[in-house]
Write a structure and sequence with these properties.
- The complex is a heterodimer of chains A (536) and B (547).
- Chain A is an alpha+beta fold and 536 residues long.
- Helix content of chain A is 36%, strand content 20%.
- In chain A, the strands form 4 sheets. Chain A has a 7-stranded mixed beta sheet, sandwiched between helices. In chain A, strands 1-7-2-6 form a 4-stranded antiparallel beta sheet. A 3-stranded antiparallel beta sheet of chain A has the order 3-5-4.
- In chain A, a hairpin with a 2-residue loop joins strand 4 and strand 5.
- Chain A starts with 5 loop residues before the first helix and ends in a 6-residue tail after the last helix.
- Chain B is of the alpha+beta class and 547 residues long.
- Chain B has 4 domains: 64 residues, 2-Layer Sandwich (Phenylalanyl-tRNA Synthetase, Chain B, domain 1), CATH 3.30.56.10; 196 residues, Phenylalanyl-tRNA Synthetase, Chain B, domain 3 (3-Layer(bba) Sandwich); 70 residues, Phenylalanyl-tRNA Synthetase, Chain B, domain 1 (2-Layer Sandwich), CATH 3.30.56.10; 185 residues, BirA Bifunctional Protein, domain 2 (2-Layer Sandwich), CATH 3.30.930.10.
- Helices cover 29% and strands 28% of the residues of chain B.
- In chain B, strands 11-10-9-8-5-14-15 form a 7-stranded mixed beta sheet, with no helix packed on it. A 7-stranded mixed beta sheet of chain B has the order 19-22-23-27-26-25-24. In chain B, strands 4-13-6-12-7 form a 5-stranded mixed beta sheet.
- In chain B, strand 10 and strand 11 form a beta hairpin.
- Chain B is elongated and about 95 Å long.
- Classes of the chains: A alpha+beta (536), B alpha+beta (547).
- At the A-B interface, helix 13, strand 8, strand 9, strand 10 and strand 12 of A face helix 8, helix 10, helix 11, strand 19 and strand 22 of B.
């Protein structure tokens, strides 16, 4: 193609077959798409699609005008063929006037001068109309003053011009017509007919006019190279028919139908990532039951038996269930642990004053849904206390339960990320170190600690992370070092244990831009399909 | 978390102007400033510090922390004539203990009275555990005649006009008919004996922990001298509560007088005791716990800033814990005091070099593998609640009744899930507007009653898959299972079974190594109708114990 510059060449190579068909049928004058369709032997939809593609390439200019057109409705078509119901009635009345009175009209009550009459109730039968048509016909004629009713009988008014066409009859004969062009009496007729069902309708129509652009004009005269190849087929691959030919170029950014893949739930993706951080730091995973005894959730963690958190309004207790031993399987030989915990509560472990109130084993036997994963840590340090195998580092990520009413920031189930480090030399600055490391990898560079209180840790702290997007500190939860009243019953002496259990849902929500906690476990498939994957 | 709201001007009178710097200090003290307006200061308190629950006590702590206040010392005057409270044996069965004091020469302003009443209420609700553990009464001294007796009496032998009432009532009438009586009636259940304080004229002062007498139970701005009692079941807590109140009132001026508590059963004593308590500690222990090194002088400085004294007795260190602190149980509690004064911001985080071997839970690895296989087949993993409703479970398992129910759930969900399929069907039912086909799965825990388990409940991990479309059936699920088991390197067979939850002839047991591990089938139309699911569903649920 000599003299064709590169851009034009690329355009030509990217023309699809339907564009190739349509382009030669266009000119620099506006053509209606319907006309183009006829000329090119294509259906209108295909032409519209082709025009759309050509316009994107800058080859044509199209203009869409919305036109309102008045046309006959379903009944209207029928009435045009036959007659309007009011005409039917009018004809019968004038027939009646001009003929010998029928049986129906022989009543003496009919004034002799007025000609023929039809009783109201007989209109349907006489005119062959349905109930609605009869009603309308009567209404219309009364409105025009052509008829009058006398003692339940209908007759023509004196001097009625019966033969003249009504404005409605005149109007429907003109249809279809553009709404703009409806004038004078026709307007009145339209208004009248619109009140009646399905006689006329106003249709909004799009008229698309299309003409060649300057670029289009240029290409119009060129060889469109009809030999562009479309799909590559297995048949073509058997031979060499493709040699020396060109494949049509695609618009690489054209929209394509959506595709959704299967995927892991976003909470599980985030959990897996968080787990990998703890694993990288040499932590072992803890697992355990969600249904737990008061002993492991509260008592072993030095939570006083009259602490408000143990009340029913905060904790899910299970009906009619009682733990057999509170402390867990008796074969572990953990009776001693139970006694030690009792002692820690009542006072007397390593000089601690304890809570100085009687400890009730029955309270420890209540069965509940764990309110924190820290019960896993408590069980674990009992195990470590028995085996003596430490330094040791453990983590858990799991669901916890609180008896809460649900709103955007509260749920009755939530995830916690739990961890413990058991080491003779563990200390507070190391606790801060682990937390900084973990949250750094979770994407929070800026952290701060505040003093806090938990029954089972001392010192305790609250972790806040800086949310860059929201420009504010977010409270994530607590950490600390287990108190001697917790460790001594398990180890027989105080071994420092670093412990933390920040909530994890807030972190997940931040990453995925979820503002309402209720979205987390809603399983809205549309949203799950659209949701991006966890990437840190 | 408790919120303490204070009048800003009143507080500034005591601690000086609240600058940005002071605001930060208050926050560093572990009592974050939540709200600061021209008229009010709102701080958040942790439940272990009831001693900070009044403006006066809070201001003292701020001044100490700011280095402007000394460790508090309280002067107690000797009891005068008849400064006596006789605790009779008759009261021991219902509310056995009381601690008391008299304060004279007060000059209450309106705001003082409000602060005292507020503190009283806050102490009741926190450390007093809603008056169960401790209840406080304050009486104008000029309206009562000493000595006082604390006695237990039958209901009909108690007759007085309680506050906010129009007629005299006996004990039962108060518990049944008086609004405050009704609110706290549960604290005096199952007893024929009711505790009352009575004065030398046999006038009833109050019936703790319920209500005071109208005649003697109101203090106003003219009140100069008061009698205070605090009653309950545990002397240790009662003393703390009284001391916190006295520490606060003492900041309003007035002299604290001791009283003789005569208790022939449990022993007499003089009240109040506002001396400090000694707590021995080693500086090395604090250093080791915190991971910083500290000199004696530094430790003393930090403790003093937290309002705690320190003494060196020939190389033995003692913390002198003030009488109002209820949260110092062990030397470990001193480490946090030191840490707060040292400043949480000033610790430099570090990671120690301890070698430990990481290990992921083996089931979690299996769970991830299954998740990846099914996601590879274009399925969406779901994550649903462990709690559901009986109604939901009954939509499929209409004969099931072994519910594991929680008490007093605040939501409609009140039973633990017994299977995974219920949740799967709920998800399909709630997503009728999402594009089809829908293919979902979840691995999760289900719960069953089990007498053999220690807590009476057995927990198991299960996989459920559900697929729905206009045309969907057993074949599609069989394809999935074939692929899944092949990828897991396992073999399975399906044996015909009748299960009313599935269509007969299109439901089977999934068997691995001769053991049934689950069910698969086209879900019965009855179940689908219950869930208002309009298209056929094929489902399977597999216990993962065999992995």
């Amino acid at each position: 193609m000599i003299g064709v510059d590169m851009d034009e060449k690329l355009i030509i190579e990217s023309l699809s077959p339907m564009e190739r068909d349509v382009l030669p049928k266009l000119s620099k004058e506006d053509l209606e798409v319907g006309v183009v369709a006829e000329k090119s032997n294509l259906d209108k939809t295909t032409v519209l699609r082709a025009v759309g593609l050509l316009e994107k390439k800058g080859l044509v200019v199209s203009e869409t005008n919305e036109v309102k057109r008045v046309d006959l409705g379903i009944l209207g078509i029928n009435y045009l063929k036959k007659e309007l119901p009011e005409r039917a009635l009018l004809n019968k009345l004038s027939d009646a006037r001009n003929s010998v009175p029928s049986k129906l009209g022989t009543s003496e009550e009919v004034p002799a001068s007025s000609g023929k009459v039809i009783p109201i109730g007989e209109i349907r039968n006489v005119c062959g109309l349905n109930e609605n048509e009869a009603k309308v016909a009567l209404g219309v004629l009364k409105g025009k003053g052509l008829v009058e009713i006398d003692k339940g009988k209908l007759k023509l008014s004196g001097g009625s011009e019966v033969s003249k066409k009504s404005i409605e009859e005149v109007f429907i004969e003109k249809l279809p017509v553009a709404l703009d062009e409806v004038k004078d009496l026709d307007l009145l007729a339209l208004a009248n007919l619109k009140k009646r069902k399905d006689i006329v309708e106003v249709i909004e129509e799009k008229i698309v006019n299309v003409k060649l652009s300057d670029l289009g004009l240029k290409i119009y005269g060129m060889d469109l190279g009809g030999e562009m190849l479309e799909a590559l087929t297995p048949k073509m691959l058997k031979g060499t028919s493709w040699k020396g030919k060109k494949f049509r170029r695609y618009d690489l950014n054209a929209p394509v139908p959506r595709l959704y893949g299967g995927k892991r739930h976003f909470v599980n993706q985030a959990t897996d990532y968080a787990k990998s951080i703890w694993l990288e730091m040499g932590f072992k995973e803890m697992k355990g039951n969600m249904v737990e005894s008061g002993f492991w959730v509260f008592d072993s963690l030095f939570t006083a038996q009259d602490h408000p958190v143990r009340e029913m309004q905060d904790t899910f207790y299970l009906k009619n269930l009682r733990s057999k031993s509170g402390v867990g399987s008796s074969e572990l030989g953990v009776k001693k642990v139970l006694e030690n915990v009792a002692k820690a509560h009542e006072g007397g472990v390593d000089g601690s004053k304890g809570w100085q109130q009687k400890w009730d084993e029955e309270d420890a036997k209540k069965v509940l849904l764990r309110t924190h994963t820290t019960c896993l840590s408590a069980r674990k340090i009992m195990e470590i206390g028995k085996s003596g195998e430490f330094p040791a580092k453990y983590f858990a990520l799991g669901k916890c339960f609180r008896n809460e009413t649900v709103d955007w920031s509260h749920g009755f189930e939530f995830n916690q990320t739990e961890g413990i480090v058991v080491d003779e030399n563990a200390n507070f600055v190391q606790l801060l170190g682990y937390l900084k490391q973990f949250f750094g990898k979770m994407g929070y560079e800026k952290l701060r600690w505040r003093p806090a209180y938990f029954a089972y840790t001392e010192p305790s702290l609250e972790i806040d992370v800086w949310h860059e997007g929201k420009q504010k500190w977010l409270e994530l939860g607590g950490a600390g070092m287990f108190r001697p009243e917790v460790t001594i019953p398990m180890f027989g002496k105080h071994v420092p244990v670093l412990a933390w259990g920040p909530g994890f849902d807030r972190v997940i929500m931040n990453f995925f831009g979820i503002d309402d906690l209720r979205e987390m476990y809603k399983n809205d498939l549309n949203k799950l399909r659209e949701m991006r994957v966890w990437r840190k | 978390m408790t919120i303490l709201t204070m009048d800003r001007k009143e507080l500034e009178k005591r601690v000086g102007k609240i600058s940005k710097e002071l605001e930060k200090k208050i926050t560093d003290m572990g009592t974050p400033v939540e709200e600061l307006t021209d008229s009010e200061v709102e701080v958040e308190l942790f439940p272990n510090r009831p001693d900070l629950l009044s403006l006066e006590n809070f201001a003292r702590a701020v001044n100490q922390f700011n280095g402007k206040g000394k460790v508090a010392k309280f002067r107690i005057y000797e009891p005068e004539k008849n400064y006596e409270v006789i605790v009779e044996k008759s009261v021991k069965v219902v509310r056995p203990f009381t601690v008391c004091a008299i304060i004279k020469g007060l000059k209450f302003s309106d705001s003082d009275i409000k602060n005292v009443v507020d503190l009283q209420e806050k102490l009741h609700n926190s450390i007093g555990r809603k008056r169960k553990k401790a209840a406080i009464g304050i009486y104008p001294l000029d309206k009562i005649s000493l000595p006082i007796r604390f006695v237990g009496r039958a209901s009909e032998d108690i007759k007085f006009l309680p506050l906010e009432a129009s007629r005299e009532m006996n004990a039962r009438q108060i518990l049944k008919g008086h609004p405050t009586g009704r609110e706290y009636a549960h604290l005096l259940e199952d007893t024929d004996v009711y505790p009352v304080f009575i004065d030398a004229n046999d006038d009833v002062l109050s019936m703790p922990p319920i209500i005071n007498s109208e005649k003697t139970g109101r203090i106003d701005e003219k009140t100069r001298d008061v009698f205070i009692e605090c009653s309950g079941h545990n002397l240790v807590y009662l003393k703390k509560v009284l001391n916190i109140l006295l520490a606060s009132i003492s900041e309003m001026g007035g002299k604290i007088y001791a009283m003789n508590i005569k208790d022939s059963k449990d022993g007499s004593f003089v009240s109040p005791d506002m001396g400090h308590e000694d707590l021995e500690f080693k500086i090395e222990d604090i250093e080791k716990t915190l991971g910083i090194s500290l000199k004696e002088k530094e430790v003393r400085g930090y403790l003093n800033r937290m309002g705690i004294g320190m003494r060196n007795d020939n190389g033995k260190f003692f913390a002198e814990v003030p009488c109002y602190r209820a949260d110092i149980l062990h030397w470990i509690d001193l480490t946090e005091e030191v840490a707060i004064a040292y400043g949480y911001d000033n610790f430099v985080p570090e990671i120690p070099e301890i070698s430990t071997i990481a290990e992921e839970d083996s089931f979690d690895r299996e769970k991830r593998a299954i998740g990846n296989i099914l996601a590879g087949l274009g399925m969406l993993e779901c994550n649903s609640f462990h709690l559901t409703t009986k109604k939901n479970i009954k939509k499929m398992h209409y004969e099931f009744n072994d519910f594991i129910e929680v008490e007093e759930s605040k939501t409609e969900r009140d039973v633990l899930r017994m299977d995974m399929m219920t949740n799967m069907l709920q998800i399909l039912s709630e997503n009728s507007d999402a594009a089809y086909p829908q293919k979902v799965f979840e691995v999760g825990r289900v719960f069953a009653l089990d007498e053999k388990s220690d807590n009476g409940v057995r927990e198991k991990e299960r996989l459920a898959i559900a697929m729905v479309d206009e045309k969907m059936g057993y074949t599609e699920m069989k394809q999935v299972l074939d692929y899944l088991f092949k990828m897991l390197g396992l073999e399975y067979i399906v044996e015909d079974v009748e299960d009313s939850n599935y269509i007969v002839g299109r439901c089977g047991k999934i068997v691995v190594d001769d053991v049934e591990v689950g069910r698969v089938g086209e879900v019965a139309p009855r179940v689908l109708r219950n869930w208002k699911i309009r298209f056929p569903v094929v489902g399977c649920e597999i216990g993962l114990g065999f992995l």
